[in-house]
Amino acid sequence: MRFLSRLKRSKKGNDLKSGQVDILLSRVQFRELLERERERASRNGHAVALVLIDTDGLQMSALRLRLIAETLNSRIRQVDEVGWFDDRRIGIILPYTTKEGALHLAEDLSQRFQRRGVDPSIEVYTFFSEEFLRFQEGC
Length: 139
Prior knowledge:
Elements: H1 27-44, E1 48-54, H2 62-73, E2 81-84, E3 89-95, H3 99-115, E4 121-126, H4 130-138
Antiparallel strand pairs: 1-3, 1-4, 2-3
């Protein structure tokens, strides 16, 4: 199933509009924002984290994607960006977030997903950490 996308934010704040599949940034859009945020973090010396939610094996239906989007919507901030990192992983860019903060979010998301009957694996990377540098080499 092909999920198209853009992140649409309502005028009220950071609601993900989940009308069908038009809810996530495309891979190209997401990668552009990730690179821009990495450059900004490097220039300004602030933390940035990347959380990846692996949807492989979840049999992604529109309903399951909506559950994931609603769960993310309940936890993301206005400055965070959500989109397709690749064909199977949804990414969350977390500006001004340390590894500890990203791990806290990942744990909370994992618990929320499990309560909704969805159990994806979640990875956390932080800018300029060893893991992130190895991760970048693999892209």
